[in-house]
Amino acid sequence: MAAISMRNIVKRYDDGYQAVRDVSLDIADGEFVILVGPSGCGKSTLLRMIVGLEDITSGEMVIGEQRVNDKAPRDRNLSMVFQNYALYPHLTVFENIAFPLRLKKVRDDEVKAKVTEVAAVLELTENLDRKPANLSGGQRQRVAMGRAIVRDADAFLFDEPLSNLDAKLRGQMRTEIARLQRRLGTTTVYVTHDQTEAMTLGDRIAVLRKGELQQVGTAHQLYEEP
Ligand code: ADP
Ligand code: ADP
């Protein structure tokens, strides 16, 4: 786990558009922060700068003890779950979840132990031998989550992970994500434009508007006080 500290973060795209304007935000070790705001306000851009998929124009990004501005994504030890959660169609659920461990050449017995544990938490034990095509949308999303949490990342980053699911599944998955984060206690940044997710999931909510951080606080502070 690691704290994430953003100092005066700016993102100016090549065409000159300033998508993120002077954002400073401190996320504590183990904290769950929700990033909300209307479409185009810069949520994905900010998340991609944390992971390293987007260059930082100016400012400082510190994860744990390290300044990561110039670090490649693979050197940041973070796990990201995307909206479209692409799974490997030719691999079983077991091998999809195991994938990050295979890349790191983890020993077979250790892979088996880890994947079994993660599958139990995500209630995927019965589905380990199936291919993604034979799973429901919610199961596929859980596999994507399993792949993200199977290795000990310093933080989890979620980019609208539930937006492609129907309302019922979204509700179920919301409960599961909350349970999972409490259990693992891993620092999490979660992007959504869904008010219910924002109000129920995180420790704190950060509201972005036109690339600027407008408000940061608990759901109670943001939505229930005048
Ligand atoms: P959000 O995730 O909040 O919907 P984004 O971070 O995707 O917002 O985008 C923020 C703004 O930056 C938008 O106006 C978007 O059009 C713009 N933008 C995103 N990517 C690029 C890019 N590669 N080049 C130029 N502008 C971009
Ligand atoms: P979202 O709203 O889900 O964040 P978008 O559909 O806005 O995603 O963007 C999808 C992709 O298009 C992203 O990779 C983003 O960087 C790119 N993009 C968005 N806006 C622009 C833009 N104005 N110019 C160039 N690329 C853009």
Structure in words:
By secondary structure, this protein is α/β, with parallel strands linked by helices. Helices cover 34% and strands 26% of the residues. Strand 7 (155-159), helix 5 (167-184) and strand 8 (187-191) form a beta-alpha-beta unit. Helix 2 runs parallel beside helix 4. The longest helix is centred in the C-terminal third of the chain and has 18 residues, at 167-184. Bound molecules: adenosine-5'-diphosphate (2 copies). One adenosine-5'-diphosphate binds at residues 39, 44.
How is the main sheet built? 6 strands, mixed
Calculate the terminal CA-CA distance, rounded to whole Å.
35 Å
Structural class by secondary-structure content: alpha/beta
Strand order, biggest sheet? 6-7-8-3-9-10
Quantity of strands, as a count: 10
Average pLDDT reading:
92
**Compute the gyration radius: what is it?**
18 Å
Number of distinct helices: 7
Domain ABC transporter: 4-226
Protein name: Sn-glycerol-3-phosphate ABC transporter ATP-binding protein UgpC
GO molecular function, one term: ATP binding
Keywords: ATP-binding, Cell membrane, Membrane, Nucleotide-binding, Translocase, Transport
Note the topology:
Layout: E1 4-12, E2 18-27, E3 32-36, H1 43-51, E4 58-63, E5 66-67, E6 78-81, H2 93-103, H3 108-121, H4 137-149, E7 155-159, H5 167-184, E8 187-191, H6 195-201, E9 204-209, E10 212-217, H7 219-223
Parallel strand pairs: 3-8, 3-9, 6-7, 7-8
Antiparallel strand pairs: 1-2, 1-4, 4-5, 9-10
The protein binds adenosine-5'-diphosphate (2 copies).
The site of one adenosine-5'-diphosphate has 12 residues, from helix 1.
